[in-house]
Amino acid sequence: MDRPVRPRLASLSDFQFGAVATETIEDTLLHLAQQNEQAVQEATGRMGSFRETRIVEFVFLLSEQWCLEKSVSYQAVEILERFMVKQAENICSQATIQLRDKAEPQNWRALKEQLFNKFILRLVSCVQLASKLSFHYKIVSNVTVLNFLQALGYLHTKEELVESELDVLKSLNFQINLPTPLAYVEMLLEVLGTLLSVSGMWVGIFHTRQ
Fold first, then answer.
1. Per the CB 3.0–4.6 Å rule, which of 68, 158, 174, 176 could disulfide with 63?
2. What is residue 155's DSSP assignment?
3. Cα–Cα distances in Å, from 40 out to 33, 35, 45, 149, 174?
4. 197 close to 17: Cβ distance less than 8 angstroms
């Protein structure tokens, strides 16, 4: 069986700066700015809590092992971060309600262990969802995920994988295709390329007239 082909690393000759129309760049920048403003307004104090170096590195190494594009890694980190923050908010809300109603306290240690035991499954589900957003390249199959989890000592079924993906989607209201830092960097590079192209054009005109 042939091994999956790893994506070729891009070289400088692969980039064609200034190839996108100026109007398209302006519209994209405006759209990204609006999305960024909304994300900042909706951000909570817990944002960034689940972007530890080890977690991000694990996602990137896993994506590389599965021959996924870099954009999938960035998207998976964003999805995982937002999902885990939402989980933390739900736990805090439950605790507040129980204190207000003076209900019998929940076994928080058991809940913490449950979240910990499912973290790798949630992480893998986020990578799977991110890969489906880049379906033009490669989608991670359930069989691949099950084999990976089994190698780590986690035994799950295909039904549990599907349920995990649905849990992530429902928790985020199915809004998972949001811009990542990579999208902003790529757009800024395109803007820079356009400016350099325009500058080069004017320099050429100036020298021609000399």
1. 68
2. -
3. 10, 9, 11, 35, 19
4. yes
Looking at residue 18, its pLDDT comes to 52
Q: Is the torsion defined by CA of 147, 149, 152, 154 positive or negative?
A: negative
Cβ atoms of 44 and 89 within 8 Å: the answer is yes
pLDDT tens digits, one per residue of 51-104: 788 999 999 999 999 989 888 888 999 899 989 888 888 777 776 776 666 656
CA dihedral 24, 28, 30, 31 (to 10 degrees): 140
The answer on pLDDT for 26 being more than 90 is no
CB 83 within 8 A of CB 51: no
Length of the chain: 210
